[in-house]
């Protein structure tokens, strides 16, 4: 059974953050970038912190962006499910708040590198990646 679109859902512990039909999506797995079209083979893969691009079916120029903070993707029978700790649509991102988080993470990273606390360095690096991802996605507006 061939289909011309997929249903895409992004789910977090706070509930469904995104639920629409799409003609194409682009995600970043821990192994690299992946483009998914309708009738894609069924897969599961871990995701990196990234900007997810979703081309909607109503118009080729209608693209949604979602900041995804890791998680998993499952593609099964034209139903794409992203499960992540957190995810935000571009329209929901407060860029100035994300900018403050970036500054805070950079400061924490600098302090952690000074004290050579490897766990704090890793934590600050993740916080910085997430803040930069939110800034990038929020800037698509």
From TrEMBL:
**Chief subcellular location:** membrane
Q: Where is the ATP synthase F1 complex delta/epsilon subunit N-terminal domain?
A: 6-87
Q: Name one GO molecular function term.
A: proton-transporting ATP synthase activity, rotational mechanism
Q: Which UniProt keywords apply?
A: ATP synthesis, Cell membrane, CF(1), Hydrogen ion transport, Ion transport, Membrane, Transport
Record localization: Cell membrane; Endomembrane system
Which residues are in the ATP synthase epsilon subunit C-terminal domain? 92-137
The membrane topology of this protein is:
Peripheral membrane protein
This protein's GO cellular component annotations are: endomembrane system; plasma membrane; proton-transporting ATP synthase complex
Matching entries from CDD domains are given as: F1-ATPase_delta
Q: Which InterPro entries match?
A: ATP_synth_F1_dsu/esu, ATP_synth_F1_dsu/esu_N, ATP_synth_F1_esu_C, ATPsynth_dsu/esu_N
Q: What does it do?
A: Produces ATP from ADP in the presence of a proton gradient across the membrane.
What does the sequence similarity comment in the record state about its family?
Belongs to the ATPase epsilon chain family.
User: Assembly state and interactors?
Assistant: F-type ATPases have 2 components, CF(1) - the catalytic core - and CF(0) - the membrane proton channel. CF(1) has five subunits: alpha(3), beta(3), gamma(1), delta(1), epsilon(1). CF(0) has three main subunits: a, b and c.
Q: What is this protein called?
A: ATP synthase epsilon chain
Top-down, what is the taxonomic lineage of the species of origin? Bacteria, Bacillati, Bacillota, Bacilli, Lactobacillales
């Amino acid at each position: 059974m061939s289909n011309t679109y997929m249903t895409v859902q992004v789910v977090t512990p706070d509930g469904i953050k995104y639920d629409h039909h799409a003609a194409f999506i682009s995600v970043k797995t821990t192994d690299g970038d992946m483009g998914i079209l309708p009738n894609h083979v069924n897969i599961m893969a871990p995701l990196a912190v990234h900007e997810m691009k979703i081309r909607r079916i109503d118009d080729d120029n209608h693209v949604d962006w979602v900041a995804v903070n890791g998680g998993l993707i499952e593609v099964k029978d034209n139903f794409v499910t992203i499960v992540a700790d957190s995810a935000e649509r571009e329209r929901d991102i407060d860029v100035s708040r994300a900018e403050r988080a970036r500054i805070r993470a950079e400061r924490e990273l600098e302090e952690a590198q000074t004290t050579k606390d490897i766990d704090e360095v890793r934590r600050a690096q993740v916080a910085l990646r997430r803040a930069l991802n939110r800034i990038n996605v929020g800037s698509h507006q």
